[in-house]
Amino acid sequence: MTSQSTFLRAAALGASAVLAFASSAQAATFSANAALTTDYVWRGTTQTQGDPAVQAGFKLAGESGWYGSVWGSNVEFSPELHASSEFDFTAGWSGALDDAWALDVNVLHYRYPATTADLNWTELNGTLTYDSRYWMSLGFSPEALGSDENGTYAQLGARFPVNDAFRVEAVAGYYFLDDVYDESYTHGQLSAIWTVNAPERPVELRVTAHGTDSGAKRIFGDDLAGSRIEAAVQASF
């Protein structure tokens, strides 16, 4: 059995176990969100050719920390792929390690229905958060971006609350894609976020500046990478 097959089998078993738990948990909580954005930007590159996106997600979480979620968005890749939608299925566990540290580990499956190529892929992710303000994330996949090769993504982030309604967030990421493209790249983003109607049904207004290095441009092209501004509104329920 190949390492990729082992990884995918373990991911599928883990996801099945988590979703079975979540569906049977008596004290599970359900949440949802919906967003409208001027550009769907993922890890520094646009997934909609710079066009707007409508997005929505649902999450079921148990008291023990196990959870399952699904999230969707419209996408626009190269015309020959005919990709128009993305669905992300996640199963994982999150919880506090002590008064300051928290951990989230999950299996995330990216799925693109009705395309002319097999773009689907799965990633194992972990995020360690300190003081609810600083985080470090790591993601690994043996089929990165729908390929048959390894890819690893690392991210550092921080949020700086100004008051109860306004905060600034900064993120720096590096995507190790040498096995896929003989190239890797760095990206960064800076967001200003306003929250209204919290905590009952919070609505977030977000403006984000994104930027990538030349490595991303060599991989994805100047039209998809580089610098761009995104504005979004998101409601949680």
- Rg is 18 Å
Q: What is the CA–CA distance across the termini?
A: 43 Å
Got a strand count?
A: 14
Series of secondary-structure elements, N-terminal to C-terminal = HEEEEEEEEEEEHEEHE
As for the number of domains, it is 1
Topology:
Elements: H1 3-24, E1 29-37, E2 41-42, E3 45-46, E4 53-61, E5 66-74, E6 85-96, E7 101-111, E8 121-130, E9 134-141, E10 151-161, E11 166-176, H2 178-181, E12 185-196, E13 203-212, H3 214-220, E14 228-236
Antiparallel strand pairs: 1-4, 1-14, 2-3, 4-5, 5-6, 6-7, 7-8, 8-9, 9-10, 10-11, 11-12, 12-13, 13-14
Give a written overview of the molecule.
With 237 residues, the chain is mainly beta. The protein has helices at residues 3-24, 178-181, 214-220; strands at residues 29-37, 41-42, 45-46, 53-61, 66-74, 85-96, 101-111, 121-130, 134-141, 151-161, 166-176, 185-196, 203-212, 228-236. The protein is 14% helix and 53% strand. The model has no long low-confidence stretch (mean pLDDT 91). The strands form 2 sheets. It has a 12-stranded antiparallel β-barrel with strand order 1-4-5-6-7-8-9-10-11-12-13-14. It is globular. It has one domain (3-236): monomeric porin ompg (Porin, Beta Barrel).
Which key features would you list for this structure?
about 240 residues; mainly beta; Porin; 12-stranded antiparallel barrel; two-stranded antiparallel ribbon; 3 helices; about 15% helix; globular
Could you provide a short overview of the structure?
The chain contains three helices and 14 strands.
